[in-house]
Amino acid sequence: METMKKRLNLPLYQKILIGMLLGLLYGWFSILQQWQFFTFNYIQPLGDVFMRLLQLIAVPLVIASLVTGLAQMKDIASLGRLGVRTLILFLMTTFMAVAIGLGIANLVKPGNQLSAKVRAELQETYASAQSSNSAALSRQQALEEQPALQFLTDAIPKNIFGAASDNSNMLQVISFALLLGLALVLVPADQGRPLLRFFESLNAVVLKMVDLIMAAAPIGVAALMASVLSNLAGNAAGAVDLLLALGTYALCVVAGIFCLLFIMNPLVLFVFSKKFKFKDLVFFYKSIFPAQLLAFSTSSSAATLPLTFERVEQHLKVRPRVAGFVLPLGATINMDGTSLYQGIAAVFIAQAFGLDLSLSDQLTILLTSVLASIGSAAVPGAGMIMLVIVLKSVGMDPAGIALIIAPDRLLDMFRTTANVTSDCMVAYIVNSHEKED
Ligand code: ASP
Question: How many angstroms does the Cα of residue 336 sit away from the middle of ligand 1?
Fold first, then answer.
């Protein structure tokens, strides 16, 4: 009995991996057996419940961890240093990621391989998908009419309760929490203490909620994988051709993500962390692996945030005040995978339409992809919606998104993994430069 218990006491990443594999196996089997109805009615809700539980704690987690993180800063100067280091690393890695994406897209030229027939089919699919989704349509129209820096205005809420009532306004919640944390550092200690104790207590309770929810992670992940596969198969009857036509493009994005994970991130870690050795790299990836798996399964940096916190603080041993600052901000604005994807997608669409992109066009794509990834919400599919800004910046028709809609769900899984990895990396690097407490 005891050994049985021990055997079941596997580390979290193994349980999530097993859940993923079982979900994939079931999904595959259910397609063969035409069990889509059962999967939709009885399996998908399990995944949705898990996603909701994760989303449910995102806002309290961000507020509590940011406020307590900031309040632990000894002074404004150290807060400033932490902030500047973090933002520089966020921006630098995002720029590097788009540059890698542009390099790959220009080298492989995936868009030149589409036939005119496939192109027309893709646009038709997009038009019908869009007309059946009026929310997405109005969001896209709104984006088309906005200035590129609109996200700065959007970052400031008019009302904190309004902002906190919707997970896609996380940047607004963060700006409120930053201001609150800053004010807490500035008021005399005895005046700030009661509020600070409240947030510390909230933080501890929310982290316990994370533990409880994570116990369901293997089942949640299994259900998510099963329903993703089953939905893909449901939509894919006519889309297999399209997927094949888009194969080179999808491979470019996946190859780019692998470049980020296995070349760029290790290099950045070696260059910017203090005293970083090869064994630290193995330790780094081992520590964050469960968060990467969850990012892959949920396609949402925000939903992964609770586990990202746990891995970074408990396993990478990053100080809570550093993690509390870097991770919520990173999940919301630091998206290396998304920016790489947006760069490749924009060039792919231009190639598919037979448009020549000049060097200045490519630089514009570089810049707007960085901005668009910062503005993308940390939820599934957000990166594709923000692609509108990138396409508009070089005078392309946003309807070109039609070309890339089919494999997007799949690519989202990869890019979210890279997004979360980069957040962990920046937290680790910034932490290595913090003075001993
Ligand atoms: N799903 C991504 C994330 O949450 C954003 C995107 O769509 O690229 O990080």
Answer: 10
By the 8 A CB rule, do 85 and 215 touch?
no
Q: Is residue 278 part of a domain?
A: yes
| Residue 133 forms part of a structural domain | yes
Residues in Cβ contact with 108 at an 8 Å cutoff, skipping those fewer than 6 apart: 248, 252
Per the structure block, which two tokens stand in for 229? Answer: 């596969």
Q: What is the pLDDT of residues 279-309, one digit of tens each?
A: 999 999 999 999 999 999 999 998 999 999 9
Give dist(CA 60, CA 206) in Å, integer: 7
Kindly list the protein residues whose Cβ atom lies closer than 6 A to any atom of ligand 1. 299-301, 335, 338, 376, 378-383, 412, 415-416, 419
Long-range contacts of 245-249 (CB under 8 A, 24+ apart): 245/113, 245/114, 245/115, 245/118, 245/122, 246/403, 246/404, 246/406, 246/407, 248/108, 248/110, 248/113, 249/110, 249/111, 249/344, 249/345, 249/348, 249/404, 249/407
Range of the domain at 424: 8-436
We report the CATH number of the domain holding residue 334 as 1.10.3860.10
Task: Give the total residue count for the chain.
Answer: 437
Residues contacting residue 323 through CB under 8 Å, at least 6 positions apart: 65, 69, 309, 312, 313, 427, 431
- Tell which one of 171, 335, 341, 401 to mutate to probe ligand 1, the residue whose CB is within 8 A of the most ligand atoms: 335
In the predicted model, is pLDDT for residue 1 greater than 60? no
Residue 333 Cα to ligand 1 middle (Å): 10
Q: Which bin fits 417, alpha (ψ -120 to 50), beta or left (φ > 0)? A: alpha
1 in a structural domain: no
Sign of the Cα torsion 397, 400, 405, 410 reads: negative
Q: Where is 356: in which H helix or E strand?
A: none
Is residue 170 within 8 A of residue 305, CB to CB? The reply is: no
Least confident of 2-6, 281-285, 356-360, 393-397: 2-6
8 A C-beta contact, residue 229 and residue 36: no
**Quick one: how far is CA 315 from the chain centroid?**
21
52 domain-assigned: yes
**What total number of domains does the chain contain?**
1
pTM score, two decimals?
0.83
Ligand 1 centre to CA of 368 (Å) is 16
Structure tokens at 236: 């894919």
Tokens linked to 355:
């448009």
